[in-house]
Write a structure and sequence with these properties.
Layout lengths: L2 E3 L6 E3 L1 E4 L12 H13 L4 E3 L8 H9 L8 E6 L1 E3 L2 E2 L3 H15 L4 E6 L7 H17 L3 E8 L2 H10 L4 E5 L8 H13 L2 E5 L23 H17 L3 H12 L4 E5 L3 H10 L6 H11 L16
Helix pairs in contact: 1-2, 2-3, 5-6, 7-10, 8-9
């Protein structure tokens, strides 16, 4: 497993990192045993960055991750998030962020996290998030509760504001820098590099769109519009014709070509984790990739709306 520095944090993170949303039953029920086994398999593969959130099962993912990492805390980096507490529940006040972080530390069984994120910032008025919310992050950093601070979300515009208007250390972006979407690489990576901000890339398979089967996202309704979904179907057909697992190609592209030091892979299935790890170093079939990118070209700079329209 290769390792790269995350921005200017000094953290040398594995090119594949482990996302714990499945440990919080966000894509269907998962047993504690399967979740802990997946974390241990990730450790054995050389993965050293584990990303979680209070939102993933209302602390369930954090609790399971904490159990799985007992005895391994000094070997890994942990990031968690707060501010989003339910599908439509957001609170970025300093008091709520503090109580959430303190709970996360208890569940994770640690006295600090390595990165603490404000989660899905595009769903609220961003001005207070970038001022009062960021001030709270800085306070937690000064107290040693977190080593570094960041913000996460889907719209590139929201993350651009976070990078340009605050002194955060890391941003987490998902469902960009994929076979369907080049927005991250073109619009956010150069700005982040200018400011010394590290990027954690996530959701290479676009929340299940770029998998052989249907997306298992909770609620069953994928946020992408019909044009993006149609492009995904074209990509899946091309890969099926070529006898290639579309998810494997999606992981290859996102890990190897995003320009980000790490890509977060969320799964409790050992075969999916092994495949993602292999995708980090397996050479890409350039002819197949060219066909796939041509099929996605009409939507490659097109994103769905997430949160408030003005933040997109």
């Amino acid at each position: 497993m290769d390792h790269r520095e995350l921005g200017r944090t000094g953290m040398n993170v594995s090119t594949v990192s482990f996302g714990t949303s499945p440990l919080g039953d966000m894509f269907g029920p998962a047993s504690e045993e399967s979740g802990i086994a997946a974390v241990h398999r990730a450790l054995d593969a050389g993965i050293n960055l584990f990303d979680t959130s209070v939102y993933y099962g209302m602390g369930l993912a954090e609790e399971r991750l904490g159990k799985a990492l007992q005895g391994h805390r000094d070997e890994v980096f942990i990031s968690t998030k707060a501010g989003r507490f339910g599908p439509d529940t957001f609170d970025f006040s300093a008091a709520r962020l503090r109580s959430s972080l303190e709970q996360s530390l208890r569940l994770l069984g640690t006295d600090h996290v390595d990165v603490f994120f404000l989660h899905d910032i595009e769903y609220v008025d961003m001005d207070p998030v970038l001022t009062e919310g960021f001030a709270a992050l800085q306070q937690f950093k000064d107290e040693g509760l977190t080593r570094f601070v960041g913000m996460s979300g889907y719209p590139i515009k929201a993350l651009q504001r976070a990078v340009a208007e605050t002194d955060i250390d890391v941003v987490l972006s998902y469902s960009h820098a994929t076979l369907l979407d080049q927005c991250l690489t073109e619009r956010l990576v150069p700005l982040a590099e200018e400011h010394g901000v590290g990027i954690m890339n996530a959701a290479a398979v676009t929340l299940g769109l770029l998998t052989p089967g249907p997306s298992k996202i909770i609620g069953g309704q994928h946020p992408a519009d019909s044009e993006i979904i149609a492009a995904a179907e074209r990509i899946k057909a091309i890969c099926a014709e070529a006898g290639v697992d579309v998810a494997f190609l999606a992981n290859q592209f996102s890990i190897q070509r995003s320009g980000c030091p790490t890509t977060v892979i969320g799964t409790v299935k050992p075969e999916n984790l092994d495949s993602a790890v292999a995708a980090a170093t397996t050479p890409i079939d350039e002819q197949l990739l060219a066909r796939v990118l041509a099929a996605a070209a009409p939507v490659s700079r097109h994103c769905w709306i997430s949160g408030r329209p003005e933040n997109n």
